[in-house]
Amino acid sequence: MQALVLDGTNQPVQLREVPTPQPGPKQVQVRLHAAALNHRDVWIQKGQYAGLKFPIILGSDGAGIVTEIGEGADESLRDQAVIINPGHNWGDNPAAQGRDFTILGLPNDGTFAEYVCVPAHYVQPKPAHLSFEQAAALPLGGATAYRALFTRAALQPGERVLISGVGGGVALLALQMAVAVGAEVWVTSSSEEKIEKAVALGAKGGISYHTAKWPAELAKQAGGGFDVVVDSAAGPGFGNLLDAAVPGGRIVFYGATQGDVPMLAARKVFWKQLSLLGSTMGTEQDFAGLLRFFDEHQLVPVIDETFPLAEGEAALRRMDQGQQFGKLVLKIIY
Fold it and tell me: What is the widest separation between alpha-carbon atoms in the chain?
């Protein structure tokens, strides 16, 4: 089969012929129609991820057709259009993943290929209203956003939500779901164009996070602070989120792209009765809830650009530049 292979740190992915994987016991083989990128793929390529091993086929997100059935797997899955849950071996505790938790695309070969094999219980029917490209854009980012909003922050209709750094896949999926559930959503970005696009998706408005004292200015626009704040950056600007939250607010963060928080204003946290909630990926129940939510509300993930598999390196570089609005997708079958 054709696959994009990463041979080492700071190397470009290369399209080459590799053996087609065959399903083991209780596994299925999926003929991938589309795969999607995540920042995780860029971090692995740069060597900024734990458990590196090479060569590796990157890619956590994918959708396609089940073509082969391993021993003990459900034969009825054959020829079914499926979406792959990339979070494997969560463990028995729904509150946090266990030591054996893995994400497809490292340590096991992922979806930047014509075929992938996964345990059969990690494939679910592709939402009928989504194309393969749209379905491929959903799994990792969607599960992350769903768990952050609903499992961790317990978002309720009518609450005011702030989503920082809108434009990335998780942030946009969180925006779409929060709007669909009846929340009032506001955003931050360094780009006025991205804020305008977020408004077109249902956000009430937004502000550049380069604006001086932006939490106070945004609160004036919104008519108050925010019940739920969703963040992926952390870093030096995290203190602004403490200011943006209402007393009793919940701040849920699923990443630290700007690094650790250098100084935390502890007094603001305890005096405002804030909850700081970490979140990573999602359980199988979170993933099932995500699919039900997208089906019920007929939501469609935002796709920034679609590339052929052979141009996977160009797609990775676009992600690295951070200019995208929505998911970057590799179309494998035309």
Answer: 61
